[in-house]
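input
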Amino acid sequence: MHDMALKTTIFSSFSTLNNNTRMYEYKRLIDKSELSILTVNKIDNIENIDKKTIVREAKSNALKKACGRKTDKGIVVVNDDLNIEIVIGREGILHSLERKRNNYVQIVSASLNIGELLRNSIAINELSTRTENQNGSIILLGVMNYINKLYAVRIIVTENKSFDSFRIFSLSAVNTKKEDATHLMVHSGLEPVQQSSTISIKELLDYCKFISIIASNFSKDVKEHLNIKEFESDLVGLKY
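output
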C-alpha cells in the first residue's frame, strides 16, 4: 500500500491532544468493559533470540492473531478501546529492546504478542511532547499472564505528523512489570490473577497502583481516587 493510501486508511476521529480530560477520569475508566488477560507461554532462552526474529514474529502475531493487515509502513492493528489504527513497525518494536533491563525477558514476551496486546488495551493518559515529526502520544494499558503471574503492559503509541488531515498512529515503546505478590495482598487485598481469562478495569487499576511505570502515568483524577502519591512519571510531557 502506498503512503497516501496508508494515510487514508489510518484516519481516526479520536481527538487526541485536544482536551480529553474526562475520558481519563477514574469513573470513565472503570465503566469500560473487562480486558482479556493474554496468556503468554514461556519460551526457552528467549533472552538470546536475535532482534530480527523478534521483529518478524511480532509482526506475524499482529497479522495472524490480531486481525492485522500489511502496509508499506508495517502491520496495522485496530485498538478496540479508541477505535484507531496503529502501525506496528520495526522501529517501534526495537526501541524497547535497546537495553537488557531486569525485565527484558518479559518485554520480549510482550513484544512477541504486541498485536494482541495493542488490540486489547485501554488508553489511560496522553503525552503532549511534540517533535519535528510527532504530535504527541497516547499511553495504553494492557495485561498479560506470564508463567501464572499478572503483568501490566504499558504501550506508547505516537501520532506522527501528516501533511494532510489524516492521522497516523504508530507503536513507539513497550514496557511491562508485575507487582510483588506479598506487597499486593497486604496493600490491596487482591490475589495475583492466575487462572482468570478477564479482569475488570477497576481490578486492574487497583493492581497497578503499586507498579511505578503504570501508576505514575495515571491521570490526576485516577491518582486521587487510588491515593497514589509516591510515584513521579518517568515520561516527559504527561498531559492529564
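quick obs: The CA atoms of residues 3 and 169 lie 13 Å apart.
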